[in-house]
Structure formats: structure tokens, C-alpha cells
Specification:
By secondary structure, the chain is an alpha+beta fold. It contains ten helices and 16 strands. The strands form four sheets. The chain has a nine-stranded mixed beta sheet with strand order 1-2-5-6-9-12-13-14-16. α8 runs antiparallel to α9. The chain starts with a helix and ends with a strand. It binds adenosine monophosphate and magnesium ion.
Length: about 325
């Protein structure tokens, strides 16, 4: 009897060790920081082959930028389009088509042709308020309606227009990451690229809305959601101050100056990364009322943090949000 007891105990221990080892292999968790698309990112994955999956995702985000979307890397398809070359790319054409739709539905508040105007401001580098005549000249060459797509070719009707996909690239990166996670049978993942986050897998996730006056990692509210993409555009991301006034990087395509719609950040929740990213920028330019309408038109939810610390949320977002910081309150 005693021997049988020892044997059973030994067997149980072996099974337990085997289970722990199995769980270690198949539910491995990794966390990888990276720098891409001129911003910081992080990949957290749980599941089989987590290391390999993280490597694949990081490589994909880098190549998406350098081969396709970057306007600073001379060899990217977008740089070639901007320099007037005839480029055929089914993938780039599909993104531009989707962004033309956002531009149209936002009444031009979203405009992916402000590259030359952004450069004059110099956000992220030697920034200063540009000369108004020079700004007006650059602005006259912008306008999404000057871009058309025919047979996977992107045509610049004004050769001086400069396409800039900075408002949507991080979301596109999340869509690509999602494809890899699914092909790799990953269980759960949270991937951030700048202000855009992919929540992947079953169950609930929580994601914070950053304190616009605080540091990265300080939150004023928390969203509880299922798997989705969450993008935030804020006036704290890239800005400079001149003569006591803050100038931020999200531009009003009507004036070429930083958008002043009364909001300091907008967060958009969508199943699609391109949409969450593009719409967060568009909604920032449009402000609470028109922005909410636009988000709804695309079946997305949105949270607007206003300059007076009131937080406006679409109905679906109201069900997800808990405001945590003192001084901030959800508007009725
Ligand atoms: P995001 O951080 O996603 O809101 O994107 C902001 C970036 O998009 C800026 O740094 C510019 O490169 C670009 N951008 C600025 N204003 C606009 C606009 N009105 N529509 C589209 N892109 C814009
Ligand atoms: Mg954006």
C-alpha cells in the first residue's frame, strides 16, 4: 500500500512537471520593445512560438515602413510616388483608397497630403512658426482630391503635393500584426505602435487614456474592451512653444495651422487599425460633435478629452470607460 502511495505521488509529480513544461512551451509570454515609424512600440504575446511571432511582427512593421509607407526613406513606394515616379502597388493603392474615403467623409478634415506643410512646421526637429506666405503656398499644393488611384497606381495631379501617411501608418502596422498573430495561432497579444494599440485574443482588455498633461504611463481614464484597435491622437505628442503659445502637429487642412477644435486628445476604438488611427486624427480636427458623427458613420466609438477636462464619449464608448483622474469628468 505504502509503495503504491509513493508511486502515485511520483506519477502525480511527473504529470505536474510535464504540465508546467507544456504550459511553458505553449503559453510562453514575451515582451519586446522596439522603435519603428519614428516612434516607440511594444509587443506582448502569449502563446506557442511567442518569440518567433514577436520577431515576425517587428520585422513586418519595419519593412512596412521602409518598403511602403515612409516618406523619408527614399526607397519606399510612397517616396517614389512623392517624387513623381510611376509606382504600381496593390497594397499602397488599397490604403490610399481607404484614406480617400476618410478624407471625403470627414469633409477634408483628414488630409494625407499635408507633407510639405508639416515639413514647414518642423515638428520633431527644429520647429518654428513658418512664414505665412510660404505656408499658404505649400497649402495650395495640398488637398486629398488631387490624388487619385487607377489600376493600383497612385497619381499625384499636383506634382508638388506631398503624401504623408503619418496619421494612419501606425494603425496599418497593427492590421499587419493582426494577420501574423492569426497565422501563428497566437492566443493573446497587446501590441502598441506610438499611440495605437492592438488588443488581440479572447476575453477582456483594459487600455488607459493618457493624461494629456502628464507623462507617458499616466492615465485619466480606463477603457474595458474586447479585442479591437484603440488609437489616440493628442496635442501632447509632438509640439513646441513659441511666445507662450503651444503649436502641435495635427493640422487644420483649411488653414495649415494646428487644429483648434477644443479637444486635447481623441481616442477611437475600431476593429480596424487603419480606421482607428485615421479617425483619431480626423476627429481631433473636427472636435466633439462632428467627430462623433464621423466615428459613428464608420461604426467606431470615440472618446474626446476637451480642454476644459470634460470627457465626451459616444454611446458605445460610455459603456467601456471609467474616469479615474481627479478634475476630469464624463459629460452627460
Ligand atoms: P496622429 O498622431 O495619428 O494623429 O497623426 C498625426 C500626423 O499626421 C502628423 O504628425 C502629420 O504627419 C499628419 N497630419 C497632420 N494633420 C493631419 C490631418 N489633418 N490629416 C491627416 N494627417 C495629418
Ligand atoms: Mg492617427
Amino acid at each position: 500500500m505504502k509503495k503504491t502511495g509513493i508511486l502515485i505521488a511520483a506519477l502525480a509529480a511527473v504529470i505536474l512537471i510535464a504540465f508546467v513544461a507544456y504550459d511553458g512551451i505553449f503559453n510562453k509570454s514575451v515582451s519586446v520593445d522596439f522603435f519603428a515609424m519614428n516612434t516607440v512600440g511594444n509587443i506582448k504575446i502569449t502563446g506557442k512560438d511567442a518569440d518567433e511571432t514577436a520577431e515576425l511582427i517587428e520585422a513586418k512593421i519595419n519593412s512596412l515602413d521602409t518598403d511602403l509607407l515612409s516618406r523619408h526613406d527614399k526607397n519606399s513606394a510612397l517616396s517614389k510616388v512623392n517624387s513623381g515616379e510611376d509606382v504600381e502597388s496593390e497594397e499602397l493603392a488599397a490604403y490610399i483608397k481607404a484614406l480617400i474615403e476618410v478624407s471625403e467623409k470627414s469633409g477634408g478634415a483628414f488630409d494625407f497630403t499635408l507633407g510639405a506643410v508639416s515639413d514647414l512646421w518642423g515638428f520633431g526637429g527644429e520647429a518654428s512658426v513658418p512664414d505665412s506666405a510660404v505656408l499658404a503656398e505649400a497649402l495650395s499644393h495640398s488637398g486629398y482630391e488631387k490624388i487619385s488611384v487607377t489600376d493600383n497606381r497612385i497619381i499625384l495631379e499636383d506634382r508638388n503635393a506631398v503624401i504623408d501617411l503619418g496619421a494612419a501608418g501606425k494603425g496599418i502596422a497593427l492590421d499587419k500584426a493582426k494577420e501574423i498573430l492569426s497565422a501563428q495561432n497566437a492566443k493573446k497579444a497587446v501590441i502598441s505602435v506610438g499611440g495605437s494599440v492592438l488588443l488581440y485574443g479572447e476575453g477582456d482588455f483594459t487600455v488607459g487614456i493618457r493624461n494629456p498633461e502628464g507623462n507617458a504611463g499616466e492615465y485619466i481614464a480606463v477603457l474595458r474592451t474586447n479585442a479591437c484597435c484603440v488609437s489616440t491622437s493628442g496635442n501632447y505628442e509632438r509640439y513646441f512653444e513659441e511666445n507662450g503659445k503651444r503649436y502641435h502637429h495635427i493640422l487644420d487642412p483649411g488653414s495649415g495651422y494646428p487644429a483648434e477644435s477644443g479637444v486635447v486628445s481623441v481616442t477611437v476604438i475600431s476593429e480596424n487599425g487603419l480606421l482607428s488611427d485615421a479617425l483619431s486624427t480626423a476627429c481631433f480636427v473636427l472636435g466633439v460633435e462632428k467627430g462623433s458623427e464621423l466615428a459613428k458613420e464608420f461604426g467606431c466609438e470615440a472618446v474626446f478629452v476637451a480642454a476644459d477636462k470634460k470627457i465626451y464619449a459616444t454611446d458605445g464608448a460610455k459603456a467601456m470607460i471609467t474616469v479615474e483622474a481627479e478634475g476630469y469628468a464624463l459629460a452627460e
